[in-house]
Structure formats: structure tokens, C-alpha cells
């Protein structure tokens, strides 16, 4: 928190999602971050859908995602013989993260993808079909997943959670639909200079490791690990997390 005082002006600026306040004479002015609602977010990503996948590849995220999956397996964070069959991809976008899993871990998977953007879902469908990966995609909000309890043996999500006004709502739903013992693998924008630039452009938040680990613990996830990206731009913009439903 930064506080600046003079004879007639007191300024209190609280970084992050907390409000910034200024007192000017007898007036107090407060500015607080506002997150886009579901329709606004869908509109934003509908407009980006046409170039989004190519954009990720040019920035090296496809390669970074594949290397992340290899690193997770090599480090022993994934159970021996881990070959997920029924995967929920929350905020699937153009399916870059799910494609990386199928290319490095197990191509014989069924990916159930959800996203707010119908245009993103169309491209995800085409990308997964081209790779001969079985999938079912639906337009939905992660805060109200249209699935029964305990139905997925793996859950993944890349750069979705930071768009929620209350990330715990999304984590609770993701916890609910996982089977006991199943992992959730998250990728989020990390705090830092580059993260702040991404935040300014896309309207998302950034997470510190302690913040997200504590949120996952509160929801009920256990055996939590924070995994840095091994290479590329993603190493400086993103962090990966893995947790298990007990």
C-alpha cells in the first residue's frame, strides 16, 4: 500500500484487486477493478478466435505446453502409468493445452471441453478432429459445470481461472466433477511485469504461487505442487500447478 499526504490531498493506493482511494479535501474517490461479465468475455474471445491458435504457436506456448507435460511426468508429479482417458478441459479455447497433453502423454483420450466462446469452440473442434482426438465440446461457464459429481479422471485448464471475479467459485466446481484421487493441472498468468502487461490488455488477474496454492487448499485440493515452465516466453508469463482431489 502506498500513502501520500499533503495539506489537502491524501492518496491511498492498494495494489492488486483492492480499491485505490484518493481523499481530496472533503471528497473521497475510490477506483476498483471490475471484471468483464460472461457475455463480455465471450465477445472478446470470439473476436480473437481467428488468430488465437496461431498466436499461441508463434509465442512458443504449444512447445512450452508439451515440454511442461513431459516435465510433469519426468519429475514424478503424475502417477506411474498415468494415462488419462476422460479429461475435462475448462476454458479450452482452441485446445492448445489439451492437444499438448494428447501429443505427449496419451493420444487415446476423450476431451470434454467447455468455453464461453462459441468461436473458440469451433476452432477447438477442428483442431482436435484433425489430430484424431475424441472430444465433446459445449458452451458453458466453469462456475456452473453441466456435469455430475466425480466423473472425470483428469481436469486441465490453461489461462482461464484468472478471468473469474471469484476464482474460488471455479475451483469448487472443478473439484466437484473430479473423481477422488484425480489431478487438476492448472496454468495461470503469474505476477510480474509481463503478467501485468497481459492483465492490462485482457482484463484478467495475475496469481502469486502462495495465493493460488492457498485457494486450492481452501477448496480441498491436496498434494499441491507449483511447477515453473521449463522454457520459452511462458517461463516468464505463466506458472503451472497440480493438485489432487483426496
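Q: What amino acid sequence fits the structure above?
A:
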Amino acid at each position: 500500500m502506498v500513502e501520500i499526504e499533503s495539506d489537502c490531498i491524501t492518496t491511498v493506493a492498494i495494489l492488486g484487486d483492492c480499491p485505490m482511494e484518493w481523499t481530496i479535501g472533503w471528497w473521497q474517490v475510490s477506483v476498483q477493478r471490475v471484471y468483464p461479465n460472461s457475455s463480455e468475455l465471450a465477445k472478446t474471445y470470439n473476436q480473437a478466435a481467428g488468430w488465437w491458435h496461431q498466436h499461441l504457436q508463434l509465442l512458443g506456448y504449444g512447445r512450452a505446453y508439451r515440454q511442461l507435460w513431459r516435465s510433469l511426468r519426468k519429475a514424478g508429479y503424475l502417477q506411474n502409468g498415468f494415462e488419462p482417458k476422460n479429461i475435462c478441459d475448462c476454458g479450452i479455447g482452441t485446445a492448445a493445452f489439451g492437444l499438448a497433453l494428447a501429443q505427449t502423454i496419451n493420444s487415446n483420450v476423450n476431451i470434454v471441453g467447455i468455453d464461453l466462446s462459441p468461436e473458440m469452440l469451433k476452432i477447438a473442434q477442428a483442431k482436435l478432429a484433425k489430430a484424431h482426438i475424441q472430444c465433446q465440446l459445449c458452451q458453458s461457464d466453469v462456475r456452473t459445470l453441466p456435469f455430475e459429481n466425480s466423473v472425470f479422471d483428469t481436469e486441465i485448464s490453461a489461462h482461464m481461472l484468472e478471468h473469474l471475479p471469484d476464482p474460488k467459485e471455479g475451483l469448487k466446481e472443478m473439484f466437484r466433477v473430479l473423481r477422488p484421487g484425480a489431478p487438476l493441472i492448472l496454468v495461470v498468468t503469474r505476477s510480474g511485469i509481463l503478467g501485468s502487461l497481459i492483465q492490462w490488455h485482457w482484463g484478467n488477474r495475475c496469481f502469486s504461487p502462495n495465493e493460488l496454492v492457498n485457494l486450492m487448499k481452501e477448496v480441498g485440493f491436496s498434494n499441491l505442487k507449483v511447477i515453473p515452465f521449463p522454457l520459452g516466453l511462458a517461463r516468464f508469463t505463466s506458472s503451472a500447478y497440480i493438485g489432487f482431489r483426496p
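Q: And what stands out in the fold?
A: The CA atoms of residues 176 and 210 lie 23 Å apart.
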